[in-house]
Design brief:
CATH topology: Ferritin
Distance between the termini: 46 Å
Helix content: over 70%
Oligomer: single chain
CATH class: Mainly Alpha
Shape: globular
Length: 140
């Protein structure tokens, strides 16, 4: 890969790690504060920490992935009206659960360019999210 390609790949990976962790935190808080569900809360927390460990597999040693960020030139940073429409806690949970799965899929695909082990871990975590989402959805 050329260096400009590396920066762009790192940018995609950085954005999707951030997206994944943010959405995991929202789902964790639904499980913790809305459902008072200790078991699923612990699972979300564990997955959030796994994502952080996974990030270290893909980061450059000195710079990390954040060096690839270019927030000022991000053509997709506009607000989307649908993001502001939530009617209840289920809507919040569902939107964030979808965000986790989509981000993990992007991470899985782009990780294949850098570390196939990381790509496999993204897939494994994504399937854990499918099962966790089902459990929480049944409780909301």
């Amino acid at each position: 890969m050329r260096s400009i390609d590396n920066i762009k790949v790192f940018r995609v990976i950085d954005a999707n790690f951030n997206r994944t962790k943010e959405a995991l935190r929202v789902c964790e808080d639904v499980s913790r504060f809305v459902l008072d569900n200790k078991k699923e809360t612990a699972q979300y927390r564990r997955l959030r920490h796994e994502i952080e460990d996974l990030r270290s597999l893909l980061e450059k040693k000195k710079k990390g992935l954040a060096h690839a960020r270019n927030i000022q030139m991000d053509v997709g940073k506009k607000d989307v009206p649908a993001e502001f429409k939530r009617c209840n806690v289920y809507d919040i949970f569902y939107a964030n659960s979808q965000r986790i799965k989509e981000s993990l899929r992007v991470l899985e695909e782009f990780s294949k360019l850098l570390n196939t082990k990381a790509a496999g871990q993204c897939k494994r975590i994504r399937y854990q999210i499918y099962a966790l989402e089902q459990k929480i959805s049944e409780q909301l």
